[in-house]
Amino acid sequence: MRIVIPGGTGQVGGILRRRYAAAGHDVVVLSRRPETLEPGVRHRLWDGRSVGDWAEELDGADVVVNLAGRSVSCRYTDEHLRQMMDSRVESTRAVGRALEQTARPPAVWLQMSTATIYADRRDAPNDEATGVIGGHEPHVPAYWGFSVRIAQQWEAAQQEATLPHTRRVALRAAMVMSPDRGGVFDYLSWLARLGLGGPVAGGGQYVSWIHADDLCRAVDLLVERADLDGPVNLAAPAPLPQREFMRDLRRAWGRRPGLPATRSMAALGAWALRTDTELLLKSRRVVPGRLLDAGFEFEHPTWPDAAADLVAGVRRGRGARPVTASPCPAP
Q: Which of 16, 90, 318, 329 gives a 20 to 30 Å CA spacing to 83?
């Protein structure tokens, strides 16, 4: 297969392109800063806004997986929020316009989205059928609603193109856990090993996640299954409160202590790390309803098992390649 991955230089892109290249597929990455030397992967320049020479890679391709978007690991200034919105919406529209002009468009367009589209809640999980879209919760900071609007416009941009022969799937992804250096698991493990990975603001907020191996297998399923389109949650079936999530991670690293942090301490830490507390405090209780209905079986359905596997992977040196973009859930 020929697989085209716009924005494929981040954590998820690295996971997918290495997997597909190792399987012998023709992998093309579209990037603003193309890498020139990578076995089995061709890199093409694009600006993420306009249709250019890169569009020829879509003609006759089998799959396009658009992952483009500005990193969310930053302070949520007005300028940064605008860049998050524009980079996601403009790149998606550019892919759509290019596909409209393609004589032989791919059969499926997988478009990255985010589990952050759902409301902050702890009472019940969010699946695709009954989940509550966020943006109007009275108990959270008002600016969190901008993250939901970004996700909504991101998904809407995928539907603007007229593509009668291309199936479209929006990947509402939770945090992707892999042993790569620089990924979210690496960052959380650093906290756990330092004894800083305790409950944040009580730790009752839910964490949704997916093991990288299950992410790849889910993407394979979505490529193969012609009956699946629209939003699909990419998350393990067992989200858990942050205090339990970090407790299990500390145990995987050898029962390290975990100092708790108040909301104000979290705000100070986020400021020092040049990020935002929404990434720490929003309760993302998301479950993969459509994947389970399709018969998908997770290799790592529970976090203690997944954490142990990932720690073992780090210790075996599987995470030797650094990533180049934020692995946090996109807003």
A: 16
**130 burial level (CB within 10 Å; 0-12, 13-18, 19+):** exposed
The CA distance from 256 to 254, in Å, is 6
Any idea which residue has 């989940």 for tokens?
Answer: 131
Domains, the chain, ordered by start: 2-315 (3.40.50.720)
The confidence score (pLDDT) of residue 82 equals: 83
Residue 154 CB burial class (10 angstroms; 0-12, 13-18, ≥19): buried
Within a 10 A sphere around the Cβ of 100, how many other Cβ atoms? 14
The 10s digit of each residue's pLDDT in 191-250 is 899 888 899 999 999 999 999 999 999 999 999 999 999 999 999 999 999 999 999 999
Nearest Cα neighbor of 173 from 199, 224, 208 is: 208
**Residue 258 corresponds to which tokens in the numbers above?**
């975990």
List, in order, residues 6 or more apart from 22 with CB less than 8 Å away: 40
Contact predicate 112/176, CB 8 Å: no
- Residues 262, 173, 215: CA angle, nearest 5 degrees: 115
Q: Residue 209 carries which DSSP code? A: E
Percent of the chain predicted with pLDDT > 90: 73
Angle at 117 between CA 112 and CA 118, to 5 degrees: 135
What separation in angstroms does the CA of 62 have from each of 16, 57, 182? 15, 10, 30
Residue 68 backbone zone (phi > 0: left; psi -120 to 50: alpha; other: beta): beta
pLDDT digits (tens, 9 = 90+) for 141-159: 888 888 999 999 999 999 9
Q: Any residues with CB less than 8 A from the CB of 133 and at least 6 apart, and which?
A: 117, 118, 119, 148, 152
